[in-house]
Design a protein that fits this description.
heterotrimer, A alpha+beta (391), B alpha/beta (328), C alpha/beta (262), A: alpha+beta, Butyryl-Coa Dehydrogenase, subunit A, domain 1, Butyryl-CoA Dehydrogenase, subunit A, domain 2, Butyryl-CoA Dehydrogenase, subunit A, domain 3, four-stranded antiparallel β-sheet, 13 helices, globular, B: 328 residues, alpha/beta, Rossmann fold, five-stranded parallel β-sheet
Chain lengths: 391, 328, 262
């Protein structure tokens, strides 16, 4: 059994830490937070160093990083500043292109992403459908008309929806399919296509460096060649990818917890009450111990899930289960640890501090890419399936 | 007779302060071990100049050579290795300055004489020097001994030893013929370069707001500019700010920058390395704002604020502006 | 331009708590983060910039334990071509002189036009190793270098003096230059660099490989011996102003008013 990172992984972790510690500041984080602004400048700097689209293939300018390496970058960035770290949010689904796209699509988009010129988005969630999208069917439709798709409908909570150069839109192409997810197709819609409009969602609790938008499609026409992957296989494509994308998200949650923990640890030695640092009180020590233990536990689960992807790629069920456990648990830990860190800072944490931002930013992790409830459903489903019981 | 040599440091016709600091320390040591104190002056047309040293040493050795006019470690090394080999002084003191750093290690190597650099104290125990040095950026001190030898070289940190007014020694000036035979083949002094003077002379300001690494980003500079503006003072800085190009080098306070002595020195986000502190420690009033309660700047300051500068400085600026408004 | 850069793997102590260890001759390092010496980071950057402009190669060399490979790999990731680590139990407790002798043995038979080091290390702060090494190699040197212009046979350098003044010198090649911080803007390590670094050579040499004898290195081969390490006594401590930002600001304004400064 081995609990150590490889030298290369250690170097990547250190490189990510050094970049974040020197480039991310509380002031920048605060600015992006206040303005609902995607951190473009940090994004471009990070891209130059290979941190953007690190998991994309080398022939298109990516670094073909493994899942563990992506996790390390995500954790380190979030540890330093959870708002600045949202620079990673504009490429979360870019890997769908090399995975399912045509050669032409790969050449067109991936190099520009790796250079930090553009960001992209993926649109599944709709005003009426989120977690149930696959079971109930989507309201956004696409029909073929000659050599074009015609798209109608609306999407919402789409990360970087307004910033994205293109969106991979999940559309119902076969309304009669049973179950409905067998009739979902992914179609690429570029920014500026007539009939495609975006509206930024404000106010928003946190994670404002990753602005979210609602999208509307009013007879939007795109060429048939904008099909991503296979017709009517869109839902399957997304679901198979979630197993991979959820793990770095979980790592980001671990990073937020770690960052909040470190700040609380330090603050507890500086803040004096009753003529002594609050670190002297058992209640504080107990909190610190719990925060550290939870964070480390979440990290181990995340690393195990990432390790499975790298080392047991054919054990798909095991990966699905671990990815869901890691995501659910890390998201919970991020919520709990930022909450406790805020409590340790109390008034000082509640106003104008990193901690209140971390607290708000942490919350999204239990919602995006499958809510905590869905993750737990997946975990339970997998275990029941193992003993032959269908839920 | 045992001898202690002190290498006088001068530039463009002026002695550097470290010269007299070393002579003060040298005199103390020479009395302790009953040694002769000898100043060494290398330069060109320095006869008159040498007289100033005669008050501080028993002997003043001068070597006059055009090739010694401006400091050149190669030429200096040739002359000094000749002098030290001949005279075998027990100790040679050199300043731990830009000159000393360039000269002492190669000189010691050529002579195979033990060297201790950047010392904040030197003493003798049984004719063997014991030095105190600072390590880890001044957070830890080291007491060290030099390996037994006929002769030793020690470089002293500038602005560490106070110059004392003492009875003039009326030292004898001895001219030594230049031992430089041929040209200096490897190194050539070309010129002095002085960065163009900026609009602000920080040495003339009564009030200085000085900013350091804690400001984190060039975009945050207006925070301290506003404070300086409110106080009617000038903006100065520590080394990292100049290294990053956020302020011109003529705003830098410290050994490699300017020495200042304002009525108020407000250090914002400066940790207080000795290089910085030696350039501002004689200010009338020093107030330091730094997040790290262990920052050495709090050992130089009269008042300290252990807090995030981004919280304190804007509030302070507003308070000062209010105060000025209400009093006018 | 073939350049050799001497670097050191040092603990980051600027913002860390420091305590003397039980031997009384070192500090407790368990909780400290080690990284490339700040000055050396500028030296490696300068070497890589020169290589990018003029061609040639960059070899990075250090003396230290296995953990120092982290610093070497960092240099390789930033663009150095080869790395050498000198390590031996006998090298422990080497001062600047002994260290320079060890480096000298490793470097003397390598081809180079230029050796770069940082002016000093942030841990022991000797500011000696590069200059002693130059003397042992019989080549000229310049320290506290803030600017390097490369000519055919020589380099023109600006040496930092005091008060913002610089001294322009011409130094014949091959030469050793010890650079000062601020000479350039050190780059970050990139993922691409880390990937490439894995293919590059990292050689480890010991006492025997260098043809050194034990008495030539370590404490016996040094000029100075550490007797004792101690935390300096506090001579003066500022009066700390406490309270919220408003209270603190008010206290400062009162102090300034009392002295007629506002």
């Amino acid at each position: 059994m081995e609990f150590e990172l490889t030298e290369e992984q250690m170097d990547i972790k250190n490189a990510a830490r050094e970049f974040a510690e020197k480039e991310f500041t509380s002031e920048l984080g605060r600015k992006y937070d206040e303005n609902y602004e995607f951190p473009w400048e940090l994004y471009r700097k990070a891209a130059k160093l290979g941190f953007i689209g690190g998991d994309l293939p080398e022939e298109y300018g990516g670094q073909r990083l493994g899942c563990i390496e992506s996790c390390l970058v995500n954790e380190e960035f979030n540890r330093v500043d959870s708002t600045c770290a949202s620079l990673l949010s504009g490429v979360g689904f870019a890997a769908l292109i090399p995975k399912f796209g045509t050669e032409e699509q790969k050449k067109k988009y991936i190099p520009r992403i790796c250079k930090g010129e553009i960001v992209c988005g993926m649109a599944l969630t709709e005003p009426n459908h989120g977690s149930d999208a696959g079971m109930v069917g989507l309201d956004t439709t696409a029909v073929k008309d000659g050599d074009e798709w015609v798209i109608n409908g609306a999407k919402t909570f789409i990360t970087c929806g307004a910033e994205a150069e293109f969106i991979m839109v999940c559309c119902q192409t076969d309304p009669k399919a049973q179950p409905p997810y067998r009739g979902v197709t992914m179609i690429i819609v570029e920014k500026g296509t007539p009939g495609f409009d975006t509206n930024s969602l404000k106010p928003k609790m946190g994670w404002r460096g990753a602005p979210q938008a609602e999208l509307s499609f009013d007879n939007v026409r795109v060429p048939l060649s904008n099909l991503l992957g296979q017709e009517n296989r869109g839902f399957h494509q997304i679901m198979s990818y979630f197993d991979f994308s959820r793990i770095p998200i979980a790592a980001g949650a671990v990073g937020i917890a770690q960052g909040a923990f470190e700040r609380a640890l330090k603050y507890s030695t500086q803040r004096e009450q009753f003529f002594q640092p609050i670190a002297n009180f058992q209640i504080t020590q107990w909190k610190i111990a719990e925060m550290a233990t939870k964070t480390e536990t979440a990290r181990l689960l995340v690393h195990k899930a990432a390790w499975l992807i790298e080392n047991k790629p054919d054990k798909l069920r095991l990966i699905t289960r671990h990815a869901a456990m890691a995501k659910a648990y890390a998201a919970r830990v991020a919520k709990e640890v930022t909450d406790e860190a805020l409590q340790i800072h109390s008034g000082v944490g509640y106003v104008d501090s990193d901690i209140e931002r971390f607290y708000r930013d942490a919350r999204i992790n239990d919602i995006i890419e499958g809510t905590g409830e869905i993750q737990r459903y997946i975990v339970a489903r997998e275990f029941y399936r193992e003993i032959g019981f269908s839920i | 007779m045992t001898e202690i040599l002190v290498l006088a440091e001068h530039r463009r016709g002026e002695f550097r302060d470290v010269t007299f600091e070393m002579l003060t320390k040298g005199r103390e040591l020479s009395q302790k071990i009953d040694a002769d104190l000898t100043a060494v002056l290398l330069g060109h047309n320095v006869k008159e100049f040498a007289k100033k040293l005669a008050d501080h040493a028993k002997k003043v050795l001068t070597v006059d050579d055009a090739r010694l006019e401006d400091f050149n470690a190669e030429a200096y090394q040739k002359v000094l290795s000749h002098l030290i080999s001949e005279r075998k002084p027990l100790l040679t003191l050199i300043g731990h300055t830009s000159f000393g750093v360039d000269l002492a290690p190669s000189l010691a190597t050529e002579l195979n004489v033990p060297l201790a650099t950047d010392c904040i104290n030197v003493d003798f125990e049984e004719k063997k020097p014991i030095v105190v040095r600072q390590v880890y950026g001044g957070k830890v001190n080291v007491k060290a001994s030099l390996h037994t030898s006929e002769s030793y070289i020690v470089t002293l940190r500038p602005a560490t030893f106070e110059v004392q007014e003492v009875e003039p020694l009326g030292g004898e000036i001895i001219e030594i013929p230049s031992p430089l035979k041929e040209d200096i083949p490897y190194k050539k002094f070309v010129e002095y370069y002085e960065p163009p003077a900026g609009e602000v002379d920080i040495t003339a300001a009564n009030i200085l707001v000085s900013v350091g690494r804690g400001i984190k980003d060039t975009e945050n500079m207006p925070i301290v500019e506003k404070l300086a503006g409110a106080l009617g003072g000038a903006l100065a800085c520590s080394r990292p700010i100049v290294d990053k190009g956020w302020l011109p080098s003529d705003r830098q306070v410290g050994t490699s920058g300017k020495t200042v002595k304002p009525k108020l020195y407000l250090a914002v986000g400066i940790s207080g390395a000795f290089q910085h502190v030696s350039g501002m420690k004689n200010s009338d009033l020093i107030i330091a704002i730094n997040k790290d309660s262990k920052a050495p700047i709090f050992r130089a300051a009269d008042y300290g604020v252990v807090e995030d500068l981004f919280k304190v400085v804007p509030t302070l600026t507003n308070k000062i502006l209010e105060e000025k408004k209400s009093s006018s | 331009m073939d350049t050799i850069v001497c670097v050191k793997h040092v603990p980051e102590t600027a913002e860390a708590e420091i305590a003397v260890d039980s031997s009384g001759k070192g500090i407790k390092t368990e909780d400290l983060v080690f990284d490339i010496n700040e000055w050396d980071d500028y030296a490696i950057e300068e070497a890589v910039l020169m290589k990018e402009k003029l061609g040639g190669s960059v070899t990075v060399i250090t003396m230290g334990p296995e953990d120092a490979d982290k610093t070497l790999r960092k240099c390789l990731a930033k663009g150095a071509d080869k790395a050498i680590r000198l390590t031996d139990k006998a090298f422990e407790r080497s001062d600047a002189y002994a260290t320079a002798k060890i480096l000298h043995k490793a470097i003397k038979d390598l081809p180079f036009n230029l050796i770069l080091t940082g002016t000093q290390a942030s841990d022991d702060g000797y500011a000696q190793v590069g200059v002693i090494l130059a003397e042992l190699l019989g080549i000229p040197h310049a320290t506290m270098v803030k600017k390097i212009e490369s000519k055919e046979e020589f380099v023109r350098v600006n040496r930092e003096l005091e008060g913002g003044l610089e001294q322009v010198m011409e130094v014949k090649l091959p030469a050793m230059l010890a650079v000062q911080t601020g000479i350039n803007e050190p780059r970050y390590v990139s993922i691409m660099g880390i990937r490439k670094a894995r293919e590059k050579e990292l050689k480890v040499l010991g006492l025997g490989d260098l043809g050194l004898k034990e008495e030539e290195v370590g404490e016996s081969g040094s000029w100075i011996t550490m007797e004792e390490m101690f935390i300096p006594p506090v001579e003066k401590e500022a009066e700390i102003l406490t309270g919220g930002p408003d209270e603190i600001a008010a206290k400062i304004v009162e102090t300034l008013k009392a002295r007629g400064l506002v």
